[in-house]
Amino acid sequence: MQSQAVLEIFERLALEAGRAILAIRARGIEVERKTDDSPVTEADRTAEAVILKGLADELADIPVVAEEEVAAGRRPDISGGRFVLVDALDGTREFIKGNDDFTVNIALIEDGVPTVGVVLAPARQQIWAGSPAGAISARAIMQQGAIDGRHPIASQRPATPLRVVASVSHRTPQTDRFIASCPKAQTVSVGSSLKFCLLAEGEADLYPRFGRTMEWDTAAGDAVLRAAGGLTRKPDGQAFVYGKTDQADDADFANGPFICAGNEELLERVLAEGACESIPVSKQISSGGSANS
Fold first, then answer.
1. Do you find a cis peptide bond into 132, omega within 30 degrees of 0?
2. CB–CB of 222/135 below 8 Å?
3. CA–CA distance, 293 with 290 (Å, rounded to integer)
4. Enclosing H/E stretch for 188
5. Are 139 and 148 in contact (CB under 8 A)?
6. pTM value > 0.85
7. Which of 85, 110, 119, 260 fits as disulfide partner to 207, beta carbons 3.0 to 4.6 Å?
8. CB 65 within 8 A of CB 85
9. Which of 228, 21, 209 minimizes the C-alpha distance to 105?
């Protein structure tokens, strides 16, 4: 199946899951705790079930790794190198608080790379999508389950001063030290995978993440960012890949630290320095995209 056909399936299932989440939110949220003490709600489970059923019906030959399924001990064989990652409700803490920074995330991974991804923010009524054809943003008409006003998006040259996006609920001391090393940086705090989308739209320049995440948290947003011309790497400059199993120091599908940027030259300089100290606030870096553009 071609990437565009996969993308259309992901968009439709994200909208269905998003409508289910909003319906549950309207009638009230009950919070439970998983074995790792992270919160989970009926909305997490219902939205995931919607997506899993749709994927089973339309992409039955592709294994699916989904957050709540993994929490229940169900992990498919992904040795073929092609699989789907699902986080049906990313930003559960923001959802519980009544904030709008929660998203539905579906991504296709091929040989460690997120090639197709959809991020839906149901409460914001906005959707982002990325594929080999490029990245788009659009209005999500949740009542109708439709998408309107598609327009292409692309990451931009860094602003002066730099705009650094950080987590609302998961800031770490290392993240704060990194941001402090960026001269006069403007900090944008937002929840869930929306951080990737800000970079993809050119609304932010860097996203450093030193706290723990899981692959389903990042894959869809990462796919959108890469399709928009941005990139994601480990702090040592190595490729940031998906499908990590049998890790000696962490669980299957757990991510280590990473840094995202909308501009390759900016990221190369940050990685070379390990921080932002040497990046002049008065200089625009000239390169507008990345090797993924």
1. no
2. no
3. 5
4. strand 186-190
5. yes
6. yes
7. 260
8. yes
9. 21
State how far the Cα of 281 lies from the Cα of 209, in Å rounded to an integer.
22
Q: Give CA 42 to chain center in angstroms.
A: 22
SS3 assignment, position 184 = coil
Strands 82-90 and 64-66 turn out to be: parallel
Token output for 247: 């890790």
Q: What are phi and psi of 36, to 5 degrees?
A: -90, 10
Tokens of 214: 């899981």
Q: From 182, 220, 219, select the one nearest 204 (Cα to Cα).
A: 182
Q: Kind and range of the H or E element at 247?
A: none
Q: How far apart are CA 265 and CA 212, in angstroms?
A: 26
Which residues does 226 contact at the CB level (< 8 Å), separation at least 6?
Answer: 113, 114, 130, 232, 292
Per-residue pLDDT of 83-130, as tens digits, reads 999 999 999 988 999 999 999 999 999 999 999 999 999 999 999 999
| CA 164 to each of CA 43, 121, 181, 223, 272: distance values in angstroms, whole numbers, following the listed order | 31, 21, 11, 19, 18
